[in-house]
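To whoever picks this up:

The parser on our side crashed when reading a file containing two proteins. I've narrowed it down to the boundary between the first structure block and the second sequence. Both blocks are reproduced below exactly, byte for byte. First block:
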Amino acid sequence: MDRDALADFLVHHRSALQPQDLGLSAGPRRRAPGLRREEVAQLAAMSTDYYTRLEQRRGPQPSTQMLEAIARALRLNAEERDYLFRVAGHSAPDRVASDFVAPGLLRVMDRLTDVPAFIITALDETLVQNVPGRALFGDASAFTGLERSGIYRWFAHPETARTVYPESDHARQSLALVSTLRAAYGAMGPRSRAGEIARALEAQSPEFAELWQSQRVGRRFEDHKVVIHPEIGPIEVDCQALFTEDASQTLVVLTAPPGTDADSRLRLLAVLGTQQFSDVER
């Protein structure tokens, strides 16, 4: 671990970011350029003291999970993220298997504060959510292993995973998810995580096994859908998807026409989400 190189790197990239770049309020009395240490710590879900010690060359060696969180908070690109890992004494992670989030998608999501937005992988693994996104779908960071994939949860735990959609939409959603997994399977190969998910679901879910044999391939997001919040109720939304160039990650945004009942419900969702998560984000 090169403490000097790590500290210099963190200070430089923190100073280069502006609060408005991440959807944060600049606030009064901001004397130094860039983000404050506590803002980076908040974005990385770690204590300010821990992050401060890293910048002061006196902290412990951060884990790979901590480094991934810092890389996301500082909006590092792939090469910068790899450098961060190396100066912290770790090997650069496999870019295919890691949770590295495309900085371009993050910058777009940072500006979306009043509608649900989240970034997912080709296996429907949620990498990051904004506050309304967590309020609507729950905090996806709690899932581990195969459970991280929304495709896996949809078929392995239908009693909980499907409550966010009306029952009349379940069949369409099932086919869309299987088609998405088939596309990922073709791109990643049978020994990949896509193959592992497919084999596990074939053994657990007759519904999945039947749909898997249909050989449907495609990654589609329904333009118009209904999602259900346990307190607010059903919300009619339009779905927009922005893909990275290699289609490995997708920013999904849910909106509604201005002035509609659905638009009012989304605004209420944003307020509710802020209230629910304000203590965590501090």
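<<boundary where parser fails>>
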Amino acid sequence: MSHFPAYFKFDASNRRVSLDARNPDFYRNPNIAYAAMHAASPTFWWEEEKQWYFTGYDTVNAFLRDRRFGRQITHVMSREELGWAEPRADLADFDRAESKSLLSLEAPEHTRLRTLVNRAFVSRQIEKLRPEITSLCHELIDGFAPDRGTELLSSFAEVIPVTIIAAMMGVPMDMRRQLLDWSHDYVRMYMFGRTAEDEALANKAARDFADYVKTLAKEKRANPQDDLLTLMLSPARDGQFLTEDELVSTAIVLLNAGHEATVHQIGNAVNIILASEHDPKALFADAKSTELTVEESFRISAPVHIFKRWALEDVEVDGVQLRKGDEIGLILAAANLDPGKFSDPLAFKPDRNEGLSLSFGAGIHFCIGAPLARLEMNIALPILFERLPKMRIAEVPVVKDVYHFHGLERLDLEW
């Protein structure tokens, strides 16, 4: 890459990048910046974020599996040692909901929680949902096909994953809208440049979400059902139970992760396919073609771009001396564009078969919902394009003004 985008400043003498994550030119098409990172230095200090970031595929893949790094740090260092202020009282509900999150724990707590939950997410269990997902896709399309147009996120992409995860968890269908609202508010806490309003909404969502999970759990204890929440209330083979805090944190993670990312992935994939020169009939001609197309959409338009890690001991990586307690950023979406791993990485190549992307992470925190997300995508996309072969983009879609989640505000289609 002979020149960098105007908003991307690189100091080669000390591998420093200056980049404003709130710049629309960046977040609307971050892949351009990611290509610049690979051309400049796949490992760099991000001035605005005041952290080291890593984008090389092999480096990021290794970090995700390296036990010298973790999602948690307070189990090996005190807040005082880390130089942290006391926890904020106004974020107590959010902190409590996050305290036992599968996304944030390390072994042995993580191992125990994941083992309890994983029973419902193994591929053979997920495959049983195929008829239900298929039926739902057709039912939704039946609803808007005669209209000759639709806003796909609200009419299709949002409904499928939230309906399926709610059914799996045993959450009543009339709570779907509320789950979406809580989830949207909750994830504001993870966004770059969050505001005081974002934090207040996230904390309230965490409190309301937790209260609802506790109420629902009480009902399930009194009247057990064949669902994931009831399963989570029952002991594992070794007699281990989830505590109430663990139950709340895990339910929130599953309900959030069970649909938030998949909504954006469906929208991103449809947008990319329609904007490409590829014939959807060929992309979804058979199961193998569909699988490759879906994996390529995960690679080039991942909905979650960054995962953070803490150094649990002093360690040197790629010439960078990291100290115990340092936080680093792994840009999964940039690792997916590493030219050393993927040929012509900025191109959408549906028949690409060069190995898996890192969109679902790796190691002990590999996305527990990956089989479900893949199944939903492999069913929803072929049905959508088969049912609406003349589908086209009606208005240029607007990318959400958030980083590090990547998705569309809306996707208006017509046929």
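After patching the parser it read the second block fine. The first strand starts at residue 9 and ends at 11. DSSP finds 19 helices and twelve strands in the chain.
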